[in-house]
């Protein structure tokens, strides 16, 4: 019998509030969306070097972050295809069951069950739990990669985004790995939770981070089953990219 997941992937319609955000910030109106789908399908059809699924749900993954500008979404898809080619040995065929023994025993990653005040998913990285002698850097990145793919499935997260809390012990290790744009978005808080609360309100945070919610009592063992249930989507993702 399949395990029951504490964490649920939200694949339904976005909320009314999020629809408003999508219109204001992403130009997500009926006419613009329809034109975005049409133009992006035409661009993909004209490029024999690329393969991507072209159903609405899949194309929306690329159109939303590009505010429905089809050419920008197409360029994003090309960059992703190049990335997949370059790092194929690390990410090419990675599936949830392959990192199960990384996610479950190590407690390096966790996901808050609730969203923050801006509707964003909150991912927590406990880098102090990472033992490089038992988990390689590539294996760690594979775990992050799969969590990223799962986030792509959630329409609410596509619009609202993700925020990551990383313990500061990891900063000297993590910063060199970030592109300049991502590094500029990192805000250091150290042990001063008051500063953290300027960005993530206490009413949305657990006691572990000076918040009003109960301490985190769950681990990857509780939400991993939901990740595993998305294996077919991950296989569809792996099938996309440069035609071979």
UniProtKB/TrEMBL annotation:
One of its GO terms (molecular function) is phosphatidylinositol bisphosphate binding. It comes from the Eukaryota. Residues 55-80 form the CRAL/TRIO N-terminal domain. SUPFAM superfamilies: CRAL/TRIO domain, CRAL/TRIO N-terminal domain. SMART domains: CRAL_TRIO_N. One of its GO terms (cellular component) is membrane. Coiled coil: none annotated. InterPro entries: CRAL-TRIO_dom, CRAL-TRIO_dom_sf, CRAL/TRIO_N_dom, CRAL/TRIO_N_dom_sf. PANTHER family: ALPHA-TOCOPHEROL TRANSFER PROTEIN-RELATED (PTHR10174), MIP26555P1 (PTHR10174:SF212). This is CRAL/TRIO domain. It comes from Popillia japonica (Japanese beetle).
């Amino acid at each position: 019998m399949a395990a029951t997941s504490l964490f649920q992937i939200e694949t339904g319609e976005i909320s009314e509030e999020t629809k408003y955000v999508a219109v204001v910030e992403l130009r997500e109106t009926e006419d613009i969306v329809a034109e975005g789908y049409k133009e992006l399908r035409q661009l993909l059809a004209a490029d024999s070097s690329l393969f991507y699924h072209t159903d609405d749900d899949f194309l929306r993954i690329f159109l939303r972050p590009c505010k429905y500008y089809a050419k920008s979404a197409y360029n994003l898809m090309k960059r992703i295809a190049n990335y997949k080619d370059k790092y194929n040995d690390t990410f090419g065929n990675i599936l949830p069951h392959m990192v199960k023994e990384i996610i479950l025993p190590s407690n390096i990653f966790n996901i808050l069950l609730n969203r923050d005040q801006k509707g964003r998913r909150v991912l927590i990285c406990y880098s102090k739990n990472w033992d490089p002698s038992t988990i390689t850097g590539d294996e760690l990145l594979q775990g992050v990669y799969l969590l990223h793919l799962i986030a792509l499935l959630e329409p609410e997260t596509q619009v609202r985004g993700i925020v990551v809390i990383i313990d500061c012990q990891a900063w000297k290790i993590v910063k060199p790995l970030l592109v300049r744009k991502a590094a500029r978005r990192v805000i250091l808080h150290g042990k001063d939770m008051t500063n953290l609360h300027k960005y993530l309100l206490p009413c949305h945070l657990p006691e572990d981070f000076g918040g009003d919610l109960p301490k985190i009592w769950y681990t990857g063992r509780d939400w991993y089953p939901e990740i595993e249930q998305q294996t077919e989507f991950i296989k569809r993702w792996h099938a996309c990219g440069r035609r071979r």
